[in-house]
Amino acid sequence: MTAEPTRSRARARAVADAVLYEGYLLYPYRANSRKNQSRWQFGVLGPAGAAGAGLGEDSELSAQCLLDAGGRTVLTLTVRFLQLQRRTVEDAGGAPVAEFVVDGRSWISWDEAVECEHSVGPLTLTDSSAPLSIPGGTEYEAIPGPDGSAAGRVVRHREHLDGEIQMSVERDERFVCLSVILRNTGAPATDQHDAIARSLIGAHVIAELDDGQFVSLLEPPPDAEAAVARCVQHRCFPVLAGPPGDHSIVLVSPIILYDHPEIAEQSEGPLFDSTEIDEILTLRVMTMTEEEKAQARATDQRAAQLIDRCDTMTPEALQRLHGVLRDPHADTAALIPEVPDGVDWWDPLADNAVRPDTDAILVGVVRVGNGTRVRLHPSRRADAHDLFYDGRIARVVTVHEDVDGQAHVGVVIEDDPAADLHEWYGRYLYFAPEEIEPLDSPRE
Fold first, then answer.
1. 122-148: per-residue pLDDT in tens?
2. Where are the domains of the chain?
3. What is the CATH code of the structural domain delimited by 335-438?
4. pLDDT digits (tens, 9 = 90+) for 182-208
5. How far is the C-alpha of 49 from the C-alpha of 189, rounded, in Å?
6. Collapsed DSSP state (helix, strand, coil) of residue 65
7. Angle at 332 between CA 327 and CA 337, to 5 degrees
8. 429 contacts: CB under 8 Å, gap ≥ 6
9. Which residues of the chain are under the pLDDT cut of 70?
10. Which of the 8 DSSP states describes residue 269?
11. What's the superkingdom here (predicted)?
């Protein structure tokens, strides 16, 4: 396996993990918080008939997308979801309790989740289906008392899950239309608790092509627009999940995403909260009392890790969450010299570093500054007056940069009888670097 597919797969799975746990647990991350009484917001596939009976969610999601495929194209489908694990705390007599406290430590009854993953393929582009069977089980964990004996126990129980992934293909003009259906095939639920216990939670599909490409459904090429318009989605939407330029991986997501989504590099871990803003949620966690943090840690192991991460966050890591300043003009020509590193444009020191009469800018490989001869080619925001100077030869007098990072070259027309007068009182004509053609040889 080459490094590039590995990186693409890792990027797609990082986004898929965020989808898997979106809404898993909301701030303030405590079981007794009202917003955490109703959970599992996205991608829930309930048992057959649960939606119609008002006990749970619809049993399936389906998606159609286009492939630009050849004779050797193969497809791998990876189904991922959470299986509910019901954690019940029992006292020494075996009676279920909402909370059990021993030596200041709290155990809470709560619904956890276990990650499930099932891959099918590589598959040729023909109709096919595969069953999903996830075993249930029960596990026991003793709660030690002050003398080391069992004072109670934690019971973790998972129901058996059944499902099915179906794939069908058909031609649509020069493309292949791929249909994917993920379905919960479990028996009808008896009540709401049974329905969610036997649901596929956060369900999504990662589709990977070998020797073929997916077509973007958000920005299709002109010859695919009609075929894309015929694609139908139900409770999900397929997006290109690899880096820009990679069309080999699609994420069939129950959450609306754009093509080539990515996790912000500043984010050090999940916060689970819908539409999370890492900095705000981290600061809010830091304001929680020690008692509230203890309740969150007792609620869920992932919540405990989140609280610990926020508690030990360094000032540098917190500063990174504040945002990233990206220069939108990073690829444009810059002044020589530039404002020194660490000095803001409004700082008086910046004024000392910028001298329009001696500063210069590179146009191609030519250093353009005071005295450089150039030919004018007005284009950017040119008006009728500017066009009179098209093709004229001018002499550079000053070079400026505005607060947005745009460079402006001040010139006087070489054959203008009033050129000396214009230069004397600073009445220059201003052009962008791309509007001038240096006539002098390159100078260092």
1. 999 899 999 999 999 999 999 888 887
2. 38-267, 335-438
3. 2.30.30
4. 999 999 999 999 999 999 999 999 999
5. 8
6. strand
7. 85
8. 389, 394, 410, 411, 412, 413
9. 1-5, 274-276, 324-358, 380-382, 403, 441-444
10. S
11. Bacteria
